[in-house]
Amino acid sequence: MRIFSYFKRHKIISIIALVLVVILALSALRKGGSDKIPNAETLKRVNLVSVYDFKNEKDYISTTGIVETKGQADLKSQYSAPVKFVYAEMGDIVNEGDIILELENSDIRAQLAQAEALLASYEGQYRSSAIGDEISKNNAIDKIRDSYIKGYDVLVSQIEPLLTNYDGNGGQISSMSLDSEISNKIITARIDLREDLKVWKRSIDSLSENSSVDDIQKSIDLSKKNLRNIDILLGYISETLNDSARHSSGSFTTFLNTWKAVVSQARSTISGAISTIISVESGYRTANNSLDTIAIAQVNAGEASVNNLKAQLAKTIVVSPVNGKISSLPLAIGELASPGTLLATVISDQGLEIKSYISGQDLAKIKNGDKAIIANGVDGEVYSVAPSISNTNKKAEIKIAIASSTASTTKRMTIGSIVPVKIAVSKNIREGETVSYKLPIQDVKIIPGEAYVLTVDEENKIKKYSVLLGEVKGDFVEVVGGLDDGMKIVSPVYELDEGEEVIVE
Predict the structure, then answer these.
(1) CA–CA gap between residue 305 and residue 300 (Å, rounded)
(2) CA dist 268 to 224, 227, 272, 365, Å?
(3) Which residues pair with residue 422 across a beta bridge?
(4) Is 101 in a helix, a strand, or coil?
(5) For the chain, how big is the Rg over CA atoms in Å?
(6) Using one digit for the tens of pLDDT, what is the confidence trace for 238-261?
(7) I need a surface site. Which of 60, 204, 269, 286 has the fewest CB within 10 A?
(8) What is the pTM of this model?
(9) In the CATH hierarchy, which fold is given to the domain comprising 38-57+430-505?
């Protein structure tokens, strides 16, 4: 019994020791693993596919097609000359605007240089004439502004005090007149001129060196009108003063005589301003119309000659109209090009398409706008469907546009290559019928008691989604629950753990 008890006691101790060893080992493993930080070299790379492409409300017509381009530029000569330079080779990638070759154009370049020099001379003559016009314009603007200043000074500084501020025996001048009609005219003219001054001022302020001929003429016309209206007002006031002087005596007569002199001087000032503005108008019109018409004609002719030679030169320089690849360069340096001769062909790297042929039976199922899956998951869309089958091959031609011509797409799409194509055609889903997905079996993880697909979240980490399966048919399995059209899943399913970080290709 003692022996049994001894072994029993030591057995328990041994078990405890073993447990401690295991715990320490696991702790060491956990600690060692925590120091490992994933990096791009160690991360697994995965591909994603849209489950919408496998929706069971669509059937797929499988066929093959040839990769073509919608954009092919055949560059033909517009000029007769030998090839001078060739800047590219067959197969070179070119961008829009890149020079491919150049025809002999030495004579054109020499003529262009001469024409440009002559045009510069003509433009110099024109500028000389235009300078005179500019001086005339600035002078006109200065005189217009001066006319406003004189008119404003006469009204505000000289006449207004007489009309509003006199407090002598005679009272306001409007009350001096023995003629009520004249008095009313003074009052009306005075009110009108107050508003006219505001409009006149805005017109003056808007004038600048960039003002047009019409703008300056409008200011001249406005100045003449306002100056003449001021002179009319001064005439009414002069008539009133003279009338009042005939019926006055003493100090009031002296007052009236003083204001008669002021008004007389004001009328002289306005008369001089009117004469100046009329002279400015006449001089400005003459100067404005005196530009050297011969110089203008020479400039126009010179510009036409330069533009014509530039157009000729452009015909000798062959540039690519698109981004793409050179597929043809038939002429070498020294060979003669005639109008219409093919100089180069550039196949655009944009606007790729697939041309395919389908049976008459499938033709009835396909329409423009149907989605297609091409080669390695490249998206496409049917944009052209022949109305009937060909009598030659008993098939109908369809064309599929590549959804996007990105660099990755063009790498996978070589012009002239044969690629597999699946065209999605809609089925009529009866009311109450469950919408399901027909996924490749390689995209679904099936284990006892569970089936799931893998997705990648915003942090590029793996996430599991449980799904409900239906029938398995060949290489496909029906998924009847757990998916929606917007999901993208990992294809094919890798040995990945939920939460594992990956790189999406």
Answers:
(1) 9
(2) 15, 12, 6, 97
(3) 62, 373
(4) strand
(5) 48
(6) 888 887 777 777 777 787 888 888
(7) 286
(8) 0.36
(9) 2.40.420
